[in-house]
Queue: 2 jobs
Job 1
Amino acid sequence: SQQGEEDPQALSIQEGENATMNCSYKTSINNLQWYRQNSGRGLVHLILIRSNEREKHSGRLRVTLDTSKKSSSLLITASRAADTASYFCATGVGNQFYFGTGTSLTVIP
Amino acid sequence: EAGVVQSPRYKIIEKKQPVAFWCNPISGHNTLYWYLQNLGQGPELLIRYENEEAVDDSQLPKDRFSAERLKGVDSTLKIQPAELGDSAVYLCASSTWDWPGEQFFGPGTRLTVL
């Protein structure tokens, strides 16, 4: 399967702390995207990183990509209660995307 | 700008009954996707349209699932007959021609098959 796997499956932190979640995949990719899903809602695009990029920032989000290790990480700094959601990586292979299993993040006020 | 619209939001049916889901993508988005999402899992692609053409339906169980996108805008996904294992959330997403592109997701239809 080309589906990515997120780690950890669940993460619980205090408000203000940083949250880091990881995504590992099996095959070469063209790009990788991160999405957020609030309970009972659709997915919302957060950030895209191409295979020739190593790091990208967007507000409180920092994404890294290590193609040699076939892994990516998403860092959310200064977390807020509103960041509570599930986070998915989606690996772009050819013209297809494959979503991972997700990390459930709980930010405790 | 309106987002991706899906209806119904919830559907409960008996097994062996037919069911249909409707999706209206964001205006101007040529690419439309249908995903299936099981509880605690990520979305899995069922079918992808470029305008009215289904360019990737390799994961669509064609014995019971069908989809159409008439005039390259709205799309309908149908299951006939539904099975217990079809209980899941069915997500619709759309994007522009740009590749790789950000996909905009609808809220999904939660299907329960009894």
Note: Chain A has a mean pLDDT of 93.
Job 2
Amino acid sequence: EVVMTQSPATLSVSPGERATLSCRASQNVNTNLAWYQQKPGQGPRLLIHSASTRVTGIPARFSGSGSGTEFTLTIISLQSEDFAVYYCQQYNTWPPITFGGGTKVE
Amino acid sequence: EVQLVESGGGLVQPGRALRLSCTASGFNFDDYAVSWFRQAPGKGLEWVGCIRSKAYRGSTDYAASVEGRFSISTDESKTVAYLQMESLKIEDTAVYYCTRDPIMWGNGGSWFDPWGQGTLVAVSS
């Protein structure tokens, strides 16, 4: 099973600042990685797939990078609606599909 | 618009069974794999299992934690997917989500979009 580790667990930022979230895989997942945003009481919302492809309708302030075992989600100029929990998910080696433990942006 | 809506959650005693439904609009499960995930209170996301499209003959896979107890199927219209849960344990308490592999004829191993709002299953005596 591919173990996904996200850091930090909590990230404190102010509106307008940049947020950098990290995700590490226990083995090579190539670019088979997705990022999701989840707000309280809601299902996850897909932001990025294939490590860096932003989904239609997702603002350009969200960007993803990385390959292999190290990945980053960057949110430039954080908006109030961006405060949420973010998860990375690998789909290179499955089953099972695996997620990181999440980063809460507060 | 592609949409998924889960239903069927509730309070159930340990050892009992429950069936969740996932109703799709805007597409059908013949063409797309559907997966179930769950999220225990205050915890992260866990993959439960999937049922593939007809391109993969509707084959299924399950997480080790539910293998032999849970099963996924679809109805004849291919617009409703079910998660049949048997021999429920307290640790199965979670919000259950259904979602799909957005790639037509995909094998279920992909990113997932869209997600439903989830349905809460509480296992307690």
Note: The first strand of chain B starts at residue 3 and ends at 7.
